[in-house]
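A reminder from the course coordinator: this example appears on the midterm review sheet, so study it carefully.

Given structure:
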């Protein structure tokens, strides 16, 4: 009987261990080039999953939490043309329009970060786009795109959230990708 309880304890402990998330080398190199830091979420038992294959959004890294029914895709885009650093809002809006459903009643809600938040996070521009995603992107009914830009890095970082509950509070995951302090 003692061995049975020991066995149960070992099995329980095995499933309670948090699996180490493996990061693709391409993602790590892009983080370094853009002067970005990735902070692995600690709540929600996230694990890395295969990167989705679609032509609209090509993430560099994807994690999911079955517990929260939340998927987060990360992409870092570099601007080859310095002039594109002046128009991140057009790039962000264009991407959100490409990701959102084209149904007549579906809207995109846009919120821009305040000047104080931009200053605190050392960003030049940031926005949040909430929408219903195209069905080929995810089987989840809701999506949020966060776009972060710092002109000095020539990069825009995108965090794309897919989730099932409209009122899910996942704002504490927004800081998983941050530009390093200069």
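Designed residues:
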């Amino acid at each position: 009987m003692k061995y049975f309880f020991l066995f149960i304890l070992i099995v329980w402990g095995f499933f309670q261990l948090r699996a180490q998330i493996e990061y693709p080398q391409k993602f790590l190199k892009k983080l370094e080039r853009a002067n970005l830091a990735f902070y692995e979420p600690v709540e929600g038992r996230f694990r890395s999953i295969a990167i989705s294959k679609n032509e609209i959004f090509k993430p560099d890294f994807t994690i999911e939490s079955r517990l929260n029914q939340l998927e987060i895709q990360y992409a870092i885009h570099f601007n080859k043309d310095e002039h594109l650093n002046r128009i991140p809002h057009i790039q962000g809006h264009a991407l959100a329009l490409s990701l959102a459903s084209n149904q007549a009643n579906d809207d995109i809600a846009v919120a821009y970060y305040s000047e104080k938040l931009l200053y605190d996070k050392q960003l030049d521009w940031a926005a949040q786009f909430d929408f219903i995603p195209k069905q080929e992107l995810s089987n989840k009914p809701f999506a949020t795109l966060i776009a972060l830009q710092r002109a000095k890095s020539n990069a825009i970082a995108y965090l794309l959230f897919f989730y099932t509950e409209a009122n899910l509070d996942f704002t504490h995951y927004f800081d998983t990708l941050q530009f390093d302090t200069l």
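The mean pLDDT is 84. The first helix runs from residue 2 to 16.
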